[in-house]
Structures
1.
Amino acid sequence: MVKKFYITTAIDYPSARPHLGHAYEKTVSDSLARWHRLLGEEVFFSTGTDEHGLKIQRKARQAKKTPREFVDEMSAEFKKLCAEWDISFDRFIRTTDPDHEEVSRKIFQKVFDKGDIYLGEYEGLYCADCEQYYLEKDLVNGNCPVHGTKAELVREPSYFFRMSKYQKQLLDFFEKNPGFILPRARKAEIVNRVKEGLRDLSVSRTSFSWGIALPNDPKHFLYVWFDALINYVSAVDYPKGNFKKFWPADVHVIGTDISWFHCVIWPCMLFSAGIEPPKSVFIHGFIKLPSGKMSKSKGNVVDPLDLSTRFGSDSVRYFLLRDIPFGEDGVFEERLIVERHNSELANELGNLLNRVLVLIEKNCNGEIPQATTDSALAVKLNLKKIQTNMERFETHLALAEIMNFVKACNAYINEKEPWKLTGKQQKVLYSAADSLRMAAILLSPFVPRAAGKMLEQLGAGPFGKNDLQFNKLKAGTKTKRGEVLFKKTEK
Ligand SMILES: [Zn+2]
């Protein structure tokens, strides 16, 4: 049976244009999705936008647009980011998609029918920008810790989800599934908070109308988080179709700031609705500047579309995946992109391809020679290690290992000096070209554009999982040396 792999990013709240954090989360998820496709698995990769709520309603009013016009425009920006950065999603889900709205109502109804919804009154200190209530102790002098604006005392009738009922079941679930919260170091904090006690969750609002009306009481609109989390099952057409094939999701990739929603609220909702929880939630770190956090107020937010235009999406992707250990915070600096681009992509990889193709043109008439790959070179590729790294979401280590192999190929050419050889040239050049083909396949999840060009120039064409072994490059194939893969940059 073909293995399946269902991976999701969080869906982004499009109250502003995409920033580097969005691009980072999508890039890591994309590299994992592509990796699993490369292994021949059946993959479903979803990303999208979370479009309801008071904050959107207010932003739209400020922009003198209807909420619908506003989210259509903003969501298009996120789609553009995906296109420019080669994010190979299978579905871009919007919470305003009619099928999602229907699934949300259906799941709310299931939870309601289970007896887990009751009408109460909610009173609390509310930040409209966060769309959440805060406890007094979490405010800073009565102000929102995120926005610094005064939290308002709000009282409203609200439906509640009996989350407290699921505390024990959730703790048992954590116990039985030690790999549910990843990296594992993040788990203790969440478990301890759950042990302090789960409170029932207010899941409806009457303070806005840009949302999903409750099926039992249409004056109430579904709390945005309850609505947003459901995207993971509606993206795969719950309860039919792809849901049967792909659920439970293998991993939800998210940022630390929303771990409580994904690791606690979401499984409790699913317990109540009688749906299996996802297999894991991977919590990644934040990308910071050397001077600290990026923020709109500081005016130092990095625009991912500007980056991909200036450096090329492959080079920016490569830097993020190679330099930042997944799960940890990372530091962003343009000079680091340039360093990786010049030293590894241009000098090591691009140069090797060019060298080998020129040598094949000079010595083999531009055709892949007839030979087998030198086992002394082939052993330098530790495929097993790369595979293990990717299973553990360690893209930085996988890339380091692939790049070690590329370096070994350069050293091999230097050592063998094929331009001086007679008779044994063919073996050396075939080995180098076949190794480049392997490197291109392995790099395709990370730098898809360059990998495609490499394969084309080697005359290798598209590949399947059976091509991930040596000696698959066909002798007699014409090579097609093209433009330089990565031009060195001065910036
Ligand atoms: Zn706030």
2.
Amino acid sequence: MHIHWFPGHMAKAHRMIREQLKLVDVVIELLDARIPVSSANPVLDEIIDRKPRVIVLNKADLADPVATEQWLGIFRARAQEAVAVESVSGGSAKLLIGRTEQAAKDKLAAWAAKGIRARAVRAMILGIPNVGKSSLINRLLGTATARTGDKPGVTRGQQWLKIGKNLELLDTPGVLWPKFEDQEAAFKLAITGAISDEVFDMEKVVNRLTELLRERYPERVSGRYNLTLPLPENPAAILELIGSRRGCLKSGGAIDYEKARRIVLNEFRDGKLGRFTLDEPGSLPEEKPSGE
Ligand SMILES: Nc1nc2c(ncn2[C@@H]2O[C@H](COP(=O)(O)OP(=O)(O)OP(=O)(O)O)[C@@H](O)[C@H]2O)c(=O)[nH]1
Ligand SMILES: [Mg+2]
């Protein structure tokens, strides 16, 4: 799948992140709980390097809770602090404040040893577009200060926000990386909404989503759209059935596939089809050897 999506502002955002990183004590990296591997930006990994990091699996309310627990275990087994958060609905975001301060503890201890009065811990929130960075900040603030939206590319500049007395957070624009080595990851990023709908091939993306659903969760598809099992092999045939169930017809009576695709994609993204984890637990990429 060919996606033209690396706009100039993302290259600029990577540069800004590199510069701002010098000012922060901790990085809070948001991953999408539905795709903890596919949503990890390898460029950020390089930029963040050894800076203390807290991983947040956001949108946990949309992910399979069993898989999320497994993923948290996988990160923690690598001595990587990780928490699952629901930035819009849940209370779990508050947990993050303590974890972030904890991640800065060496710095705080060093200040104390030098007799410097500790300032607030500074953390930078990083992650792919639309993963919920601004929503998480708002959740922690308890107000809708940072602008959010259900499409990628909402935050453009960087913004510092103070959470209580001891923590300052920097909101940043979402960033993707220039080249997807892994086409399957590109599909998953498109499915979950990290890439603007205008720049990818909707037919290919929703066909792939339909395939994934047929392979792993056929009963949810049959339940939601009142289809009999087994579902047809061909994703277009499944979409045809969904289209006819939902009355997606063009004038003359032909199935309006575009409309059927929209329904499936939106209902998946809204959680109406259920909670899904598309990256199966266990597939973290190779760890960098220490000292590199
Ligand atoms: N269901 C659910 N939706 C969420 C969660 N967090 C954020 N969202 C939604 O995801 C969309 C994107 O949220 P934002 O906070 O704007 O995302 P962002 O990472 O700041 O995006 P950019 O600024 O574009 O990089 C919004 O529609 C939010 O309501 C979550 O935990 N669960
Ligand atoms: Mg934002």
